[in-house]
Structure formats: structure tokens, C-alpha cells
Amino acid sequence: MDRDPHHHGATIVTGGPLIFLGATAVPELIDVLVDINQAGGSWAPRGILDDNPDLAGTTIAGLPVLGPLERVAEHPDARFVFAIGSHSTRLARHSILCRLDLPDDRYATLIHPGAKVYASASIGAGSIIHFGAVIANGVRLGRWVIVLWNSVIGADSRVGDGALITSQVTTNSGVRIGSYSFIGSASAIAEAVTIGPGAMVGMRSLVLRNVASGTFQFGDPPRILSRQEVPDGIIANWEEFTR
User: Fold this and answer.
1) Which domains does the chain have, with CATH numbers?
2) pLDDT category, 10, cuts 50, 70, 90?
3) 214: number of CA atoms within 13 Å, CB side?
4) What pLDDT, in 10s, does the model give residues 130-147?
5) Which of 57, 149, 190, 205 has the fewest CB atoms within 10 Å distance of its CB?
6) What is the rounded CA–CA span in Å between residue 178 and residue 241?
7) Strand 63-67 vs strand 59-60: parallel, antiparallel, or unpaired?
8) What is the dihedral of CA 120, 149, 203, 174, to 10 degrees?
9) How far is residue 86's CA from residue 91's CA, in Å, rounded to a whole number?
10) pLDDT tens-place string over residues 173-182
11) Is 154 annotated for ligand binding?
12) What is the DSSP letter of 74?
């Protein structure tokens, strides 16, 4: 088992048996693992757990689907990649993680070697940082955060647990992105703006003012398209993260 001591003072495991939780993103994450392993990692993907019964017994990207998520207990030596993530599942991610109730150190943190993570940044367990992403100085990412290709998280920003930052997003410094929120591709977020927990920002949006929790905001200039009730557990998670 290999360990990388170079990110935010914490020890990030970079090898060992690995199982994906959720099937949809597995093909692209396999490519991330190939690049990590070529840079010195030693991850050994074993299979996929997914609650879709139609996938049981099939293979995806060469990996077998081993059954539903509840079978995590059958793999005590493996770490898990939490690969469930889209605008429609952003709130469900929290309930799934609570249901699995695994300790943080059972989740693999994947940082593509082509990403730039400043030495003073902090990356939470289970987060996935893709190629070309920049995590600037003083940034704190929570657990299970996904940052896709070529996105920039500006200095001293905070991104709560389970947030999804899609490709080519740019945030200025001091931004707060709430737990289990979703930021669409090519969006820009101004300095010191807060995106509430469970909120969703549509692609190519310009965000100049705070976005309330559970709000779906889209466009430039921005328009509020809908609001959704955010579970109390997500609100509490964000409040704890920002204390």
C-alpha cells in the first residue's frame, strides 16, 4: 500500500484494492486511475457495487458489477470510490453515504497527477480531483467533493462535503460552496459569494450574489428557476463544516 504525504499535511493512500460505489462514472475514473498509477500509484480496481439490479453480473469498463451497495462489508481490505454524482443525485448522495456509514479512511481520495493542489490546501477524504483542476492556496475541500476538468477553486475558498464542481468552473477567492451543491460547467462565481447547501447553479452561469440553499439558479444575468427543500442533515452538515 502506497501513501502520498504531499497534500495538506494529511496522508493520502495511493494504492491497494479499490471498489467503485456507483457504475455511471466508472469508465472515466478508470482513466484517472491509469494516470495515477503511471505516476507512481498502485491502485488495483476490483469491481463495482451498484443498486441497479439490472447491472448485477455484468461488466463495465472491464470490471464486474458485484451487487448492491450494501455489500461493502464483504470487502474489508478495499477502499471505495464514491462515484455517484450528478445534478439529479446531489441530495441523494448524502442519504447514501449515511446509509453506508463507513469511516472516512475507507474512502479513496483520487488526485489526478495533472491537477495542481497548493501545499496549503486541504482535501477531504473521498474527494476526486480531475486533470487540469487547480485547488489554490488556503482552500478547504470537504469529503466526497468532485472537481472536474480545468476548474479553478480560488484562494481561501471553502467547498462543503459532497459538492459537485463540474468542468471549467472558476471561483474567485473566498467563495463558499455548500454541502451537496452542484455547480454547472463554465460557471463563474464572484469573490466571497456563498452558494447554499443543496443549491444548483446551471452551466455558464455568472454568480455575483449569494444563492440560497436548495435554489436552482441559471444564466447571465442569473434567474431562479426553482427551489427544493434541502434535508436537515445536509443543512446541519454545512453548518458544522463552516464553524
Assistant:
1) 3-106 (3.40.50.20), 110-241 (2.160.10.10)
2) very low
3) 8
4) 999 999 999 999 999 999
5) 57
6) 9
7) antiparallel
8) 10
9) 10
10) 999 999 999 9
11) no
12) G
| Grid cell locating 24 | 455511471
Q: How much of the chain exceeds pLDDT 70, in percent?
A: 95
Q: Are 72 and 49 in contact (CB under 8 A)?
A: yes
Phi, psi of 125 (to 5 degrees): -55, 140
Mean pLDDT calculated for residue range 37-44: 96
Q: Exposure string (b/e) for 182-207, b if CB count within 10 Å is 16 or more? A: bbbbebbbbeebbbbbbbbbbbebeb
Q: Which residue matches cell numbers 451487487?
A: 67
Residue whose entry in the numeric block shows the C-alpha cell 447514501:
96
Give the length of the chain.
Answer: 243
Cα→Cα distances 237→41, 59, 119, 178, 204, Å: 32, 35, 26, 9, 28
Going by their DSSP bridges, the two strands 215-218 and 223-227 should be labelled as antiparallel
Residue 158 has pLDDT above 90, yes or no: yes
